[in-house]
Queue: 4 jobs
Job 1
Amino acid sequence: MRISLPVLLAFLSLAVHGQDSTGLKKDTIPWTLYHTIEARLDTVFDNDQSSRMDYESILKKYGAHSRQMDSLMGIMGDNDSINQVKVIGILDKYGWLGIDEIGEKANTALFMVIQHAGHSKQVKYLPMMRQAVKDGKAKANQLALLEDRVLADQGKPQIYGSQVRVTKTGKYEFFPIADERNVNKRRATVGLEPLEAYARYFGIDYHLPK
């Protein structure tokens, strides 16, 4: 298991023409629409996190294979499906919008929903997020998590060590990591803390291989 205020100068608009990874030309976005998109994505963020806030407590109290966990995973799946429709509609029409356009919370919602989507959607939007990082519209540390998620789902070693899984005993462990001795160097380049510190969040006693 793994885990809007109206603007008086409405006639003004900001051109967001550049092409995305699919070569599609994005629509021009009126200033007023940014506020609508931000409000919509802020709600998506809250919806995404609401059920996940209970994950750790249910895992510890009932276990990974309990009826309570199955129920929570069902709720999370339903929420994710609704959120994906909203986020993918925005991405396909406007591209990956930056913090300066929609705010940090809404920008993070774009990442979180794709991170929690199915593998085919992660693969589809991974090039768009890579370009967004180059354009300063997405964060490199968030991209690292998506890169790792895609690799782990493909059965390949992850790059940054961000992905963990729950064992049959309810303990966390890392998915296999490529060139593990140098993982902290790679993590530093994208603004992630050393893996030893990250491991402590999951109760993993981790030491870099020598």
Job 2
Amino acid sequence: MYELIQISDISYYIQSPAKIGLVKLNDKEVCLIDSGNDKDAGRKVRQILDANRWKLTAIFNTHSNADHIGGNKYLQGQTDCKIYAPGIDCDFTRHPILEPSFLYGGYPCKDLRHKFLLAQESNAEYLTKDILPKGFEVINLPGHFFDMVGFRTPDNVIYLADCLSSRETLDKYQIGFIYDVAAYLKTLEMVKSLSAKMFVPAHAEATTDISELAQYNIDKVHEIEEKIIDLCSKPLCFEILLQQLFTEYDLTMNFEQYVLVGSTVRSYLAWLKDTGKLNAKFENNMLLWEQV
């Protein structure tokens, strides 16, 4: 873990729970794409920088989930590097309490205020095209989180953030986190058409061909869609539907899984309602979901 893997002349990634991209800007300066999940990850990145005598000039965050911004504060404090994050995710990076609050739908209890959902605050600036290093390209990847992006480097390596999961992850956890299902599917269809020297997803193996894995993720979304519609053959409230999904997929509920899977299921319900596949009705002061 935290091994530096070279992909091409200037592009690398650091093997970690969420892969960290590293790109050489010249012989002495580098930038990071994300920073890992906590201060300890930041320390290990710093050791790699020191061992190679590299100066960190900037961290480009793909989005604001805690496992991608957790090393920000430590690395910025150590190196005085700039931090950039896209759109709404920049605000979440500045005020990370927004992540567990958004997931829970209110002020999060202590069980949700931990490093896996609540990173330390960091001084991020808005990511704009004019601040990118020469030859870099931003690739918009909405769906998983608000304004998530990926990056194409000058030597044609694409860092894909969390826009898809590995087969192993999907087979184990089944329901991957999605904020906007329609946007997520559109992003995956776009990703299928991309070409690059190498693709580096944060939670899957680096590969020269991403299309098959993108399709596997698309198929899993439609499987869950069908499962939810089937379960709503009779009117169900959200909590019962969530319980049945956990049971069907043999998942174990705790606070973290409750908010991550629960938020995702709410996104599926909103998408299915907007596309006319489910109805919502209020009965005895309870919101119920049912097939059209």
Job 3
Amino acid sequence: MTSLTPSRSDHTRYLCGLAPVIPVLVIPDAAVAADLGRTLIGAGLPVLEVTLRSDAALDAIRAMAALPGGHVGAGTVLSADDARRAKDHGATFAVSPGLTDAIAAACEDLDLPLLPGVATATEAMAARDMGFDMLKLFPAEAVGGRALLKALAGPLPQLSFCPTGGITTATAPDYLALANVTCVGGSWIAPEADQRARDWDAIGGRARAAASLQGQVSP
């Protein structure tokens, strides 16, 4: 049996187990971040991924990090500098679309738990050899989705996944039914239009529905 380095995924595995869906958030205006975070956390989704895809992202992370009951991380972490800025603004974990030595080293130096992205068996094996056993499959639908995850489960049973990318409220239960899927990432829960309109009822309704999702195999 291959000897692996100790897991660097203990905390991200814990976070991924707190709810079936992690909202993947693009926040265009940090002024809505606190209300958005309270809505999502109150609806049963305590783990929030704020992607670094807007100028407001870091300020949004800072605002959400002050909320009780939540765990706010930075998504789309592409460099060591991204990781440092995220940690400085209160992020308690990082999510990257891929995995590089520089990002892994920076997150380790910062004591910032990392959920790294993979898209192939080779990338999953490389992440495993670096000590990560809780991974993000990205972009899930584009790279094979449930079929790929089923195929990876045989040779790599020690790995668990949070698939993200193209997943919807309709397809999420089929992903959650897989033994190697702990949760999914969902961008459908808080679209930018609803954030701008401050439509917390609509966002909260989607969040409550997501929090109640369970795995089921479609016919």
Job 4
Amino acid sequence: MSNALARKQYTVNEYLDFEEHSRQRHEYMDGEIVAMAGASRRHSRIASNIGGELYQQLKKKRCEVHYGDLRLRVRKTHYVYGDVAVFCGEPELEVYKDTETLLNPKVIFEVLSKSTEARDRGDKASDYRQIESLTDYFLVAQNRVHIEHYSRQKDGSWKLLEYRNLEDAIRLSSISAELGVSDVYAGIDLPKLRLV
């Protein structure tokens, strides 16, 4: 983030105007504009694996899979880009000038990086869990086989399931899909991954 962006509080409209003309993506939270770090090849490959697998399963259903370029509004003063986001049915969109922001994601995946993990687990996760349409939220490690799956229960609470084996399968009943852990990590140099 540049110093100029760090010194000032911005309104939502100032952020949206700035983002519309920027070559780099930025997230926004409560007046602060945060530049997004570039993703590593490993990070990008894991996100592509997830998105590709889900796309194949959902392409004939009324669901869409987006890879990190569709902005999400988590709440009125918090805008983000999830690594993979899925919505089903009609999209609920906030339109500002020529840009769209999705309001009703159903499933979100975040691939963890050293530079983003604290935020992905903290403010971002807390705000994600407030989205009424969201049923599933994932944190995916890229340096080891470890996927955390938070799923909304009928009473509104969140249940955590963890996957640490390549043979595991993640069932996403909310979108009638299944994701193999081995598919998530396909093409990743496994000897460098720590199996936990």
